[in-house]
């Protein structure tokens, strides 16, 4: 259809030209049409110098270099190089971190680290699977959810032999499925937050407020529009609006012109898979004895999921029992409890407060939930600072926080730090399970665009094999080096990348709330991909359900990024061409936050292990910041984590059935346990 519209523009011109000129017009049309959704961009600029006379911009100078292409290849090998300038007379190659300023200079050729050179294949929108590359405000995942709701309302019948939810296409929902939409979502154990037929969303307006405007003007108008459509727990934080949107309202919100994008607000706490021990391992007991410091006249705030609103039956103890047993003080200030509706949470905030109370028994304690989206999280940090917190600690990670730019939560952490608050954040439990690379054009086509070549050598590998056992999930977050619209406004992402999981027949498999194929241009440089293996896929020719799948990264449109990075959030990392890179990102990578890693308490010097042994799951840094909050290209090296604290310590209830040291109390593992103990000290 796009080619036909373009052809109409050339119609009168075509009729008025000579046969040779007509042929040239046809060739132009043909080339544009065969490119489909993909749009090539210039690789280099002649007569231009990037970031001249800027010592911080140049990484190194190599001479002699034979050509601009050789200079670009040198840049590809440098992680911190994103641009280059080549001097054709001196045969000198300048590798650069920055592009601006750009000045005219004869004899120089400048370009970008990554450039797609060989791709010419067609990617037509009509050929894409249902729900992929949705062009409304909804992410592809929410568009599929809206479609599923529409099928429910229609009472559609799933054809015999077709795959059940979450793999359905149009007409694939039976009447039995109608009553089990939420149950099926919960059964997949994926990164969704759907409760009481509401989904937790982040809404980015088309025209975000100007710098410094806190929810004024158009944000309040948009908030009211969404409240009228049933949005609950609405919270505004500058360029973001978060809340619980009725599933039935998704379709209406999709067409709002005042909305740039709507995506699921996905998060989890940083507890691990698997007190007095922590106090001893940090020698905090010696501080109390020698200096008589107990936290008196100090306020400590915790940000987590819930305090006393457990989601799943009965805990070993509740808050009142903890108070009666002197595991918590009686006067904890609850600024805002978490757990929308009756679903509740894990009460991890209460477990963190127990650990703080065990070390700083006279400190005044407060709690604010982060449940409800990044706007709730950011405003919770600010609310605790207004409450008078001297120290704040959190253990939450939102998947919609940028790797390479300080987003709303990171900016809130730095704001309160500059006000004099000590801010601590759990570093995360992703170990070094991250892949990063320049985008390399393989010359081969995937479902949505040109496939990335994972092989840095002369070979070509377009798929990373991944193992996903039946009943388990695989999940990763992909970012690339372009500023986010939700953070800085402006033009947003110039590229549209997709991260797709394929089966053995190279057919994409999609999870309802994280499909990996969202439109990105003019929005955020973000994809979240998740796949739950429910055992219904069996196409590899071997007996039993498939467990071997294949990951691909594809460039659908726009320039190739100079750096792309995905971080594993669940499942087993690929075995081939995996780079084992940094995994600390978002607000715990903020300038004003102290990221806290973890070491099991029994593996520290007070327990006769010197030096302490860091937990293998503890996340690693550094992840460099490449853009300022207003979208300017920078290079800010963030050396993280700054500190390490103990995990594996006892609480009265968290996590049930995990008494690893046989003390009669459950053990709390992960950087979620380490963070509050360091904050208490």
UniProtKB/TrEMBL annotation:
GO molecular function, one term: serine-type endopeptidase activity
Assigned GO CC terms: extracellular region
Enzyme class: hydrolase
UniProt keywords, alphabetically: Disulfide bond, Repeat, Signal
UniProt cross-references to InterPro entries, sorted A to Z: Apple, Glr3161-like_dom, Pan_app, Peptidase_S8/S53_dom_sf
Pfam families: PAN_1
GO biological process terms on file: proteolysis
Protein name (record): subtilisin
Species for this entry: Vitrella brassicaformis
């Amino acid at each position: 259809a796009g080619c036909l519209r373009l052809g109409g523009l050339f119609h009168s011109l075509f009729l008025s030209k000579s046969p040779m000129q007509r042929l040239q017009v046809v060739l132009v049309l043909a080339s544009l049409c065969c490119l489909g959704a993909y749009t090539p961009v210039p690789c280099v600029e002649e007569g231009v110098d990037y970031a001249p006379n800027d010592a911080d911009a140049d990484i190194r100078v190599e001479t002699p270099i034979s050509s601009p292409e050789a200079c670009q290849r040198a840049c590809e090998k440098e992680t911190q190089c994103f641009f280059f300038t080549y001097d054709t007379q001196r045969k000198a190659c300048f590798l650069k971190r920055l592009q601006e300023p750009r000045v005219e200079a004869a004899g120089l050729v400048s370009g970008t680290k990554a450039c797609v050179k060989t791709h010419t294949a067609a990617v037509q929108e009509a050929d894409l699977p249902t729900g992929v590359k949705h062009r409304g405000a909804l992410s592809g995942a929410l568009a599929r959810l809206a479609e599923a709701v529409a099928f429910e309302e229609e009472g559609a019948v799933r054809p015999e032999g077709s795959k059940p939810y979450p793999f359905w296409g149009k007409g694939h929902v039976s009447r039995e499925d109608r009553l089990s939409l939420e149950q099926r979502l919960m059964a997949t154990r994926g990164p969704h937050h759907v409760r009481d037929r509401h989904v937790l969303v982040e809404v980015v307006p088309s025209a975000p407020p100007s710098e410094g405007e806190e929810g004024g003007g158009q944000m309040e108008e948009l908030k009211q529009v969404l409240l009228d459509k049933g949005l609950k727990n609405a919270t505004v934080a500058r360029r973001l609006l978060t809340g619980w949107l009725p599933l039935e309202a998704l379709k209406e919100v999709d067409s709002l012109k005042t909305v740039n994008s709507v995506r699921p607000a996905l998060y989890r706490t940083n507890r691990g898979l698997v007190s007095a021990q922590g106090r001893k391992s940090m020698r905090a007991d010696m501080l109390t004895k020698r200096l008589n410091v107990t936290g008196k006249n100090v306020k400590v705030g915790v940000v987590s999921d819930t305090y006393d609103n457990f989601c799943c039956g009965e805990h070993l103890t509740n808050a009142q029992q903890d108070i009666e047993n002197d595991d918590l003080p009686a006067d904890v200030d609850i600024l805002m409890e978490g757990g929308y509706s009756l679903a509740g949470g894990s009460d991890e905030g209460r477990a963190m407060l127990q650990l703080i109370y065990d070390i700083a028994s006279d400190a005044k304690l407060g709690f604010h939930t982060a449940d409800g989206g990044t706007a709730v999280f950011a405003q919770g940090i600010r609310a605790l600072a207004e409450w008078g917190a001297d120290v704040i600690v959190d253990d939450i990670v939102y998947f919609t926080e940028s790797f390479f730019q300080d987003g709303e939560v990171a900016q809130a952490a730095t704001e309160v730090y500059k006000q004099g608050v000590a801010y601590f954040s759990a570093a995360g439990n992703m170990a070094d399970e991250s892949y990063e690379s320049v985008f390399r054009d393989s010359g081969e086509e995937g479902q949505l665009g040109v496939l990335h070549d994972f092989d840095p050598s002369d070979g070509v590998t377009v798929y990373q094999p991944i193992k996903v056992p039946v009943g388990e999930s695989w999940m990763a977050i992909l970012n690339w080096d372009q500023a986010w619209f939700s953070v800085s406004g402006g033009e947003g992402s110039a590229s549209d990348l997709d991260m797709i999981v394929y089966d053995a027949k190279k057919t994409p498999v999609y999870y309802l709330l994280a499909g990996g194929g969202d439109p990105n241009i003019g929005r955020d440089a973000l994809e979240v991909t998740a796949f739950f293996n429910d055992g219904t896929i069996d196409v590899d020719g071997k007996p039993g359900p498939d467990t071997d799948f294949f990951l691909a990264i594809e460039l659908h449109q726009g320039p190739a990024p100079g750096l792309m990075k995905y971080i594993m959030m669940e499942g087993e990392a690929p075995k081939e061409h995996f780079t084992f890179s940094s995994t600390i990102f978002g607000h715990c990578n903020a300038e004003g936050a102290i990221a806290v890693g973890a070491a099991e308490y029994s593996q520290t010097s007070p327990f006769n292990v010197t030096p302490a042994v860091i937990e293998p799951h503890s996340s690693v840094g550094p992840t460099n910041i490449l853009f300022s909050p207003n979208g300017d290209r920078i290079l800010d090296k963030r050396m993280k984590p700054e500190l390490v604290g103990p995990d594996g310590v006892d609480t009265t209830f968290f996590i049930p059935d995990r008494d690893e040291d046989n003390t009669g109390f459950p053990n709390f593992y992960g950087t979620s346990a380490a963070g509050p103990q360091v904050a208490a000290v």
